[in-house]
Design brief:
The chain is α/β, with parallel strands linked by helices. The chain has 10 helices and 7 strands. Helix 2 packs across helix 3. It is globular and about 45 Å long.
């Protein structure tokens, strides 16, 4: 397996993170979460529920998960009926993910591997769904859209949930705020408009939904009631005031179909 310098930095960083975290990992998925991401009743309010909603139906579908981490989403997807093929750059993360699948009784529905590239993770295989949750902003996205199209079956769906900074002035402001939390790994950064356009290129169907404008401050709050209110106010704001979407901090993308004009390299 060929590993670039960037991938090596990411692997080293997350191996260290997950090595520390393993002692405090709660492997069993709470019943509340299984119900929540099975039903997705609040998919217009919360980005992760929206992503799971966009993936439906999952029963009987083969799904590729990019950057599975410790397997939380892998288990939720398998519990919803998908046959999950998941990979991550971190061996430490994959080890925890395998334990989590076993504890939740879904090890027979999930295959985990250590890999750095979606083309090589399950070479020669094509999928009904491709999914990534807050992972693309860690990657070099050169040629990524084409790779996704190559592994998707003709009627397949790709869904990604990512942190974004879509407004250029907000991006500049973000760099100038000394107390703004630094990116936790060396190479990651929120996606910008150019990144989103490149990811969507070559797909015939593109659906974008923005989240977390006012509620971007939720990590600073302690009240779950107030956090929930902010998310619901965001839903009304982002649905009712289109220009506010440029200030969202999370974007969910649903990509389908191939444009006939999309260039494919041999």
């Amino acid at each position: 397996m060929i590993v670039t310098e960037r991938q090596h930095r990411e692997r080293t960083h997350f191996d260290r993170v997950y090595r520390r975290a393993e002692r405090t990992q709660h492997l069993r998925i709470p019943p509340h979460d299984l119900r929540r991401y099975g039903r997705c009743d609040d998919w217009r309010t919360y980005g992760k529920e929206c992503a799971f909603h966009y993936l439906k139906p999952l029963a009987g579908r083969e799904l590729l998960e990019i950057g599975c981490g410790t397997g939380v989403d892998s288990v939720l997807l398998a519990a919803n009926g998908a046959r999950v093929f998941a990979y991550d750059v971190s061996p430490e993360a994959v080890e925890i993910a395998r334990k989590r699948a076993e504890v939740n009784g879904l090890a027979d529905r999930i295959t985990f591997v250590v890999a750095c590239d979606l083309s090589a993770a399950f070479a020669g295989r094509r999928f009904d769904r491709v999914f990534g949750n807050t992972v693309l902003h860690h990657l070099d996205l050169t040629g990524f859209s084409e790779k996704v199209r190559r592994v998707l079956r003709p009627e397949g769906v790709a869904v990604f949930r990512e942190p974004v900074v879509l407004d250029r002035w907000l991006r500049r402001l973000r760099r100038c705020i000394p107390w703004y939390p630094s990116n936790p790994s060396p190479d990651e950064r929120p996606l910008d408009r150019q990144d989103v356009a490149a990811l969507c290129r070559g797909f015939a169907g593109v659906e974008l939904r923005q989240f977390e404008c006012l509620s971007r401050i939720w990590p600073l709050l302690r009240s779950s009631w107030l956090i929930d209110c902010l998310h619901r106010w965001d839903r009304e704001l982002l649905e009712g005031v289109p220009w506010s979407r440029r200030f969202a901090s999370v974007l969910v993308m649903r990509l389908t179909g191939h444009c006939p004009s999309a260039r494919e390299t041999p």
